[in-house]
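User: Hello, can you help with two protein structures?

Assistant: Certainly.
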Amino acid sequence: MPSPRHSATITGIILAGGRGRRLGGQDKGLLMLGRQPAVAWLLQALAPQTDALLINANRHLDRYRAFGFPVVEDDYADYAGPLAGLLAGLEYCQTEYLLSVPCDAPLPAPDYARRMLAALQQAGSRLCVAHDGERLQPVHLLLHRDLAPELRAALTNGQRKTRDWVLSLQPARADFSDHSEQFLNMNTPEEQARLEALLTASP
Protein backbone atom coordinates (compact mmCIF):
# COMPACT_ATOMS: atom_id res chain seq x y z
CA MET A 1 0.00 0.00 0.00
CA PRO A 2 1.37 3.47 -0.78
CA SER A 3 2.43 5.91 1.90
CA PRO A 4 -0.43 7.99 3.36
CA ARG A 5 0.95 11.15 1.78
CA HIS A 6 0.07 9.71 -1.65
CA SER A 7 -3.63 9.40 -0.86
CA ALA A 8 -4.26 11.89 1.96
CA THR A 9 -2.40 14.54 3.89
CA ILE A 10 -1.76 13.91 7.57
CA THR A 11 -0.46 16.04 10.41
CA GLY A 12 0.92 14.19 13.40
CA ILE A 13 0.28 15.66 16.84
CA ILE A 14 2.10 14.69 20.02
CA LEU A 15 -0.15 15.26 23.02
CA ALA A 16 2.06 16.65 25.78
CA GLY A 17 -0.42 18.93 27.47
CA GLY A 18 -1.11 16.96 30.64
CA ARG A 19 -0.07 17.45 34.22
CA GLY A 20 1.85 14.19 34.65
CA ARG A 21 0.22 13.67 38.02
CA ARG A 22 1.07 9.97 38.21
CA LEU A 23 4.74 10.86 37.81
CA GLY A 24 4.76 13.55 40.44
CA GLY A 25 3.83 16.38 38.11
CA GLN A 26 6.74 15.88 35.73
CA ASP A 27 6.33 16.89 32.11
CA LYS A 28 6.40 13.43 30.55
CA GLY A 29 7.23 14.62 27.05
CA LEU A 30 10.50 16.05 28.31
CA LEU A 31 11.57 13.08 30.43
CA MET A 32 14.82 11.61 29.20
CA LEU A 33 14.75 8.14 27.67
CA GLY A 34 18.35 7.35 26.98
CA ARG A 35 20.00 10.02 24.88
CA GLN A 36 16.93 12.21 24.27
CA PRO A 37 13.52 13.12 25.68
CA ALA A 38 10.36 11.18 24.91
CA VAL A 39 9.02 13.82 22.53
CA ALA A 40 12.15 13.62 20.38
CA TRP A 41 11.71 9.86 19.90
CA LEU A 42 8.16 10.47 18.72
CA LEU A 43 9.09 13.27 16.35
CA GLN A 44 11.65 10.99 14.71
CA ALA A 45 9.18 8.11 14.46
CA LEU A 46 6.32 10.14 13.01
CA ALA A 47 8.25 12.39 10.61
CA PRO A 48 8.54 9.73 7.84
CA GLN A 49 4.84 8.88 8.17
CA THR A 50 3.26 12.34 8.08
CA ASP A 51 3.24 15.57 6.08
CA ALA A 52 3.55 17.88 9.09
CA LEU A 53 4.05 17.67 12.85
CA LEU A 54 2.68 19.54 15.85
CA ILE A 55 3.23 19.41 19.59
CA ASN A 56 0.40 20.14 22.00
CA ALA A 57 1.75 21.51 25.29
CA ASN A 58 0.62 23.81 28.09
CA ARG A 59 3.91 24.41 29.92
CA HIS A 60 7.62 24.55 29.10
CA LEU A 61 6.57 25.97 25.75
CA ASP A 62 10.01 27.31 24.85
CA ARG A 63 11.58 23.91 25.43
CA TYR A 64 9.05 22.28 23.14
CA ARG A 65 9.45 24.97 20.46
CA ALA A 66 13.18 24.28 20.47
CA PHE A 67 12.47 21.02 18.64
CA GLY A 68 11.55 23.08 15.59
CA PHE A 69 7.85 22.31 15.21
CA PRO A 70 4.74 24.38 15.94
CA VAL A 71 3.46 24.15 19.51
CA VAL A 72 -0.28 24.57 20.13
CA GLU A 73 -1.82 25.18 23.53
CA ASP A 74 -5.22 24.10 24.80
CA ASP A 75 -8.00 26.65 24.44
CA TYR A 76 -9.48 25.48 27.74
CA ALA A 77 -8.14 26.23 31.21
CA ASP A 78 -7.34 23.74 33.96
CA TYR A 79 -5.90 20.99 31.80
CA ALA A 80 -9.06 19.81 30.08
CA GLY A 81 -7.42 16.58 28.90
CA PRO A 82 -6.57 15.01 25.54
CA LEU A 83 -9.74 16.25 23.84
CA ALA A 84 -8.59 19.85 24.30
CA GLY A 85 -5.23 19.01 22.76
CA LEU A 86 -6.90 17.30 19.83
CA LEU A 87 -9.10 20.33 19.24
CA ALA A 88 -6.06 22.63 19.24
CA GLY A 89 -4.47 20.40 16.63
CA LEU A 90 -7.56 20.12 14.45
CA GLU A 91 -8.04 23.89 14.40
CA TYR A 92 -4.38 24.53 13.59
CA CYS A 93 -3.55 21.84 11.04
CA GLN A 94 -3.74 22.46 7.30
CA THR A 95 -3.99 18.81 6.29
CA GLU A 96 -7.00 16.60 5.79
CA TYR A 97 -6.29 14.41 8.82
CA LEU A 98 -4.77 14.64 12.28
CA LEU A 99 -2.91 11.63 13.72
CA SER A 100 -2.46 11.66 17.50
CA VAL A 101 -0.07 9.99 19.93
CA PRO A 102 0.43 10.64 23.65
CA CYS A 103 3.85 11.99 24.52
CA ASP A 104 4.67 9.10 26.85
CA ALA A 105 4.19 6.32 24.29
CA PRO A 106 7.34 6.65 22.16
CA LEU A 107 7.15 3.37 20.22
CA PRO A 108 4.59 3.90 17.44
CA ALA A 109 4.51 1.29 14.72
CA PRO A 110 6.50 2.28 11.63
CA ASP A 111 3.28 1.96 9.62
CA TYR A 112 1.02 3.56 12.22
CA ALA A 113 -0.31 6.26 9.90
CA ARG A 114 -0.80 3.91 6.95
CA ARG A 115 -2.76 1.36 8.94
CA MET A 116 -4.96 3.97 10.60
CA LEU A 117 -5.75 5.57 7.25
CA ALA A 118 -6.50 2.22 5.61
CA ALA A 119 -8.95 1.27 8.37
CA LEU A 120 -10.62 4.67 8.26
CA GLN A 121 -11.05 4.62 4.48
CA GLN A 122 -12.30 1.04 4.46
CA ALA A 123 -14.97 1.92 7.04
CA GLY A 124 -15.88 5.22 5.38
CA SER A 125 -15.48 6.94 8.72
CA ARG A 126 -14.15 10.33 9.82
CA LEU A 127 -12.32 8.90 12.82
CA CYS A 128 -10.20 5.83 13.48
CA VAL A 129 -9.06 4.52 16.86
CA ALA A 130 -6.28 2.02 17.46
CA HIS A 131 -6.97 -1.31 19.14
CA ASP A 132 -4.30 -3.36 20.90
CA GLY A 133 -6.08 -6.69 20.55
CA GLU A 134 -7.74 -6.43 23.94
CA ARG A 135 -9.01 -2.88 24.24
CA LEU A 136 -9.33 0.42 22.45
CA GLN A 137 -6.57 2.99 22.84
CA PRO A 138 -8.59 6.21 22.62
CA VAL A 139 -5.69 8.66 22.47
CA HIS A 140 -4.23 6.94 19.40
CA LEU A 141 -6.50 8.44 16.78
CA LEU A 142 -6.78 9.54 13.18
CA LEU A 143 -9.36 12.31 12.82
CA HIS A 144 -10.73 14.22 9.84
CA ARG A 145 -10.24 17.94 10.33
CA ASP A 146 -13.94 18.64 9.80
CA LEU A 147 -14.56 17.13 13.26
CA ALA A 148 -13.26 20.33 14.88
CA PRO A 149 -16.67 22.05 15.31
CA GLU A 150 -18.21 18.93 16.81
CA LEU A 151 -15.33 18.49 19.22
CA ARG A 152 -15.46 22.14 20.28
CA ALA A 153 -19.19 21.79 20.94
CA ALA A 154 -18.60 18.65 23.01
CA LEU A 155 -15.93 20.37 25.11
CA THR A 156 -18.09 23.44 25.59
CA ASN A 157 -20.84 21.13 26.84
CA GLY A 158 -18.51 19.63 29.41
CA GLN A 159 -17.25 16.50 27.65
CA ARG A 160 -13.84 15.49 29.00
CA LYS A 161 -13.76 11.71 28.50
CA THR A 162 -11.89 10.90 25.31
CA ARG A 163 -13.22 7.35 25.03
CA ASP A 164 -16.85 8.45 25.33
CA TRP A 165 -16.48 11.09 22.63
CA VAL A 166 -14.64 8.71 20.29
CA LEU A 167 -17.25 5.98 20.66
CA SER A 168 -20.08 8.46 20.03
CA LEU A 169 -18.75 8.83 16.47
CA GLN A 170 -18.86 5.12 15.62
CA PRO A 171 -15.16 5.05 14.78
CA ALA A 172 -13.23 2.74 12.52
CA ARG A 173 -10.86 0.48 14.43
CA ALA A 174 -7.31 -0.36 13.42
CA ASP A 175 -5.81 -3.58 14.76
CA PHE A 176 -2.34 -3.22 16.28
CA SER A 177 -2.35 -6.47 18.25
CA ASP A 178 0.89 -7.37 16.46
CA HIS A 179 2.56 -4.16 17.68
CA SER A 180 1.25 -3.80 21.22
CA GLU A 181 4.46 -2.10 22.37
CA GLN A 182 3.08 0.99 20.64
CA PHE A 183 0.83 1.45 23.67
CA LEU A 184 3.45 1.10 26.38
CA ASN A 185 3.58 4.36 28.31
CA MET A 186 5.12 5.71 31.47
CA ASN A 187 3.08 6.45 34.52
CA THR A 188 5.63 5.06 36.96
CA PRO A 189 9.45 5.15 37.21
CA GLU A 190 9.45 1.41 36.46
CA GLU A 191 7.57 1.95 33.20
CA GLN A 192 9.95 4.77 32.30
CA ALA A 193 12.93 2.45 32.84
CA ARG A 194 11.31 -0.25 30.70
CA LEU A 195 10.74 2.14 27.80
CA GLU A 196 14.27 3.47 28.08
CA ALA A 197 15.63 -0.06 27.85
CA LEU A 198 13.53 -0.83 24.76
CA LEU A 199 14.48 2.39 22.99
CA THR A 200 18.18 2.24 23.71
CA ALA A 201 18.32 -1.42 22.65
CA SER A 202 16.96 -0.53 19.19
CA PRO A 203 19.40 0.01 16.31
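That covers the first. Now for the second protein you mentioned:
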Amino acid sequence: MLRQWLRHRMPSQETLRQHRVLALFGERLLDPDYWCCNRHSAAVAVAAGLFAAWMPLPMHTLVAIGLAVLFRGYLPLAIAMVWVNNPLTLAPMFYFAYQLGARLLNTPELVFSGSFEQEALAMAVPLLTGALLMGLNCALLGWIVTRLGWRWKVQLAWKLRREKRSQR
Protein backbone atom coordinates (compact mmCIF):
# COMPACT_ATOMS: atom_id res chain seq x y z
CA MET A 1 0.00 0.00 0.00
CA LEU A 2 2.83 2.40 0.84
CA ARG A 3 4.50 1.55 -2.46
CA GLN A 4 1.43 2.43 -4.52
CA TRP A 5 0.89 5.66 -2.61
CA LEU A 6 4.51 6.72 -3.07
CA ARG A 7 4.62 5.64 -6.71
CA HIS A 8 1.77 8.01 -7.61
CA ARG A 9 3.31 10.95 -5.78
CA MET A 10 6.93 10.64 -6.85
CA PRO A 11 8.33 13.05 -9.42
CA SER A 12 9.47 11.69 -12.75
CA GLN A 13 13.12 10.90 -13.40
CA GLU A 14 13.29 13.80 -15.84
CA THR A 15 12.14 16.19 -13.10
CA LEU A 16 14.81 14.83 -10.77
CA ARG A 17 17.45 15.08 -13.48
CA GLN A 18 16.66 18.78 -13.96
CA HIS A 19 16.66 19.65 -10.23
CA ARG A 20 19.80 21.70 -9.58
CA VAL A 21 20.37 20.64 -5.96
CA LEU A 22 20.02 16.94 -6.78
CA ALA A 23 22.53 17.31 -9.62
CA LEU A 24 25.10 16.89 -6.84
CA PHE A 25 24.39 13.13 -6.97
CA GLY A 26 24.48 12.98 -10.78
CA GLU A 27 23.06 10.08 -12.76
CA ARG A 28 23.65 7.74 -9.82
CA LEU A 29 20.46 9.05 -8.24
CA LEU A 30 18.45 7.68 -11.16
CA ASP A 31 19.63 4.09 -10.65
CA PRO A 32 16.50 1.87 -10.47
CA ASP A 33 17.82 0.16 -7.32
CA TYR A 34 17.15 3.33 -5.32
CA TRP A 35 13.53 3.38 -6.45
CA CYS A 36 12.70 -0.28 -5.69
CA CYS A 37 11.40 -1.12 -2.23
CA ASN A 38 12.49 -4.38 -0.64
CA ARG A 39 13.34 -5.48 2.89
CA HIS A 40 16.93 -4.28 2.74
CA SER A 41 16.31 -0.97 0.98
CA ALA A 42 13.38 -0.08 3.24
CA ALA A 43 15.37 -0.78 6.42
CA VAL A 44 18.33 1.24 5.14
CA ALA A 45 16.03 4.11 4.15
CA VAL A 46 14.40 4.24 7.58
CA ALA A 47 17.81 4.21 9.26
CA ALA A 48 19.19 6.91 6.95
CA GLY A 49 16.16 9.15 7.38
CA LEU A 50 16.07 8.83 11.17
CA PHE A 51 19.79 9.44 11.48
CA ALA A 52 19.58 12.56 9.29
CA ALA A 53 16.56 13.82 11.23
CA TRP A 54 18.62 14.04 14.43
CA MET A 55 21.51 15.96 12.90
CA PRO A 56 21.40 19.69 13.77
CA LEU A 57 22.38 20.63 10.23
CA PRO A 58 20.52 22.36 7.45
CA MET A 59 19.42 20.29 4.47
CA HIS A 60 18.49 17.09 6.33
CA THR A 61 17.03 15.68 3.16
CA LEU A 62 20.36 15.84 1.33
CA VAL A 63 22.05 14.01 4.21
CA ALA A 64 19.37 11.30 4.07
CA ILE A 65 19.69 11.02 0.28
CA GLY A 66 23.47 10.74 0.57
CA LEU A 67 23.23 7.99 3.18
CA ALA A 68 20.54 6.14 1.22
CA VAL A 69 22.65 6.30 -1.94
CA LEU A 70 25.75 5.18 -0.05
CA PHE A 71 24.01 2.19 1.54
CA ARG A 72 21.55 1.48 -1.32
CA GLY A 73 18.30 2.46 0.38
CA TYR A 74 14.85 3.29 -0.97
CA LEU A 75 15.05 7.04 -1.61
CA PRO A 76 11.37 8.02 -1.21
CA LEU A 77 11.21 6.40 2.23
CA ALA A 78 14.51 7.96 3.33
CA ILE A 79 13.19 11.39 2.37
CA ALA A 80 9.90 10.76 4.15
CA MET A 81 11.61 9.63 7.36
CA VAL A 82 13.51 12.91 7.61
CA TRP A 83 10.19 14.62 8.31
CA VAL A 84 10.15 13.07 11.79
CA ASN A 85 12.07 16.27 12.47
CA ASN A 86 9.53 18.97 11.68
CA PRO A 87 8.78 22.42 13.12
CA LEU A 88 6.76 20.86 15.96
CA THR A 89 9.38 18.33 17.01
CA LEU A 90 12.57 20.27 16.26
CA ALA A 91 12.93 22.10 19.59
CA PRO A 92 12.13 19.12 21.85
CA MET A 93 14.44 16.81 19.88
CA PHE A 94 17.41 19.16 19.99
CA TYR A 95 16.77 20.12 23.62
CA PHE A 96 16.82 16.43 24.53
CA ALA A 97 19.97 15.91 22.44
CA TYR A 98 21.65 18.84 24.20
CA GLN A 99 20.66 17.54 27.65
CA LEU A 100 21.92 14.05 26.81
CA GLY A 101 25.20 15.39 25.43
CA ALA A 102 25.70 17.69 28.45
CA ARG A 103 25.16 14.78 30.85
CA LEU A 104 27.48 12.47 28.91
CA LEU A 105 30.22 15.10 28.72
CA ASN A 106 29.54 16.24 32.30
CA THR A 107 29.28 19.89 31.29
CA PRO A 108 27.43 22.41 33.46
CA GLU A 109 24.02 23.77 32.45
CA LEU A 110 24.35 26.86 30.26
CA VAL A 111 23.10 30.17 31.57
CA PHE A 112 22.60 32.62 28.73
CA SER A 113 24.23 35.89 29.70
CA GLY A 114 27.10 36.60 27.28
CA SER A 115 27.26 36.98 23.56
CA PHE A 116 25.28 34.63 21.38
CA GLU A 117 28.38 33.41 19.52
CA GLN A 118 30.12 32.25 22.71
CA GLU A 119 27.01 30.52 24.01
CA ALA A 120 26.38 28.85 20.65
CA LEU A 121 29.91 27.47 20.61
CA ALA A 122 29.60 26.25 24.20
CA MET A 123 26.32 24.56 23.33
CA ALA A 124 27.56 23.00 20.06
CA VAL A 125 29.68 20.16 21.46
CA PRO A 126 27.01 18.74 23.84
CA LEU A 127 24.32 19.21 21.19
CA LEU A 128 26.33 17.41 18.49
CA THR A 129 27.30 14.63 20.90
CA GLY A 130 23.71 14.01 21.98
CA ALA A 131 22.37 14.32 18.44
CA LEU A 132 24.93 11.86 17.10
CA LEU A 133 24.14 9.35 19.83
CA MET A 134 20.37 9.73 19.36
CA GLY A 135 20.74 9.56 15.58
CA LEU A 136 22.71 6.32 15.78
CA ASN A 137 20.31 4.79 18.30
CA CYS A 138 17.20 5.77 16.33
CA ALA A 139 18.76 4.58 13.08
CA LEU A 140 19.60 1.20 14.60
CA LEU A 141 16.17 0.88 16.21
CA GLY A 142 14.43 1.91 12.97
CA TRP A 143 16.47 -0.59 10.98
CA ILE A 144 15.65 -3.42 13.41
CA VAL A 145 11.93 -2.56 13.63
CA THR A 146 11.66 -2.33 9.84
CA ARG A 147 13.37 -5.68 9.33
CA LEU A 148 11.22 -7.36 12.00
CA GLY A 149 8.04 -5.70 10.74
CA TRP A 150 8.76 -6.81 7.18
CA ARG A 151 9.42 -10.35 8.36
CA TRP A 152 6.21 -10.34 10.43
CA LYS A 153 4.23 -9.13 7.41
CA VAL A 154 5.65 -11.90 5.19
CA GLN A 155 4.99 -14.57 7.83
CA LEU A 156 1.42 -13.31 8.26
CA ALA A 157 0.88 -13.50 4.49
CA TRP A 158 2.23 -17.07 4.45
CA LYS A 159 -0.06 -18.02 7.33
CA LEU A 160 -3.11 -16.53 5.62
CA ARG A 161 -2.18 -18.30 2.38
CA ARG A 162 -1.88 -21.64 4.21
CA GLU A 163 -5.24 -21.12 5.91
CA LYS A 164 -6.86 -20.24 2.61
CA ARG A 165 -5.46 -23.41 1.01
CA SER A 166 -6.59 -25.60 3.89
CA GLN A 167 -10.16 -24.29 3.59
CA ARG A 168 -10.47 -25.61 0.03
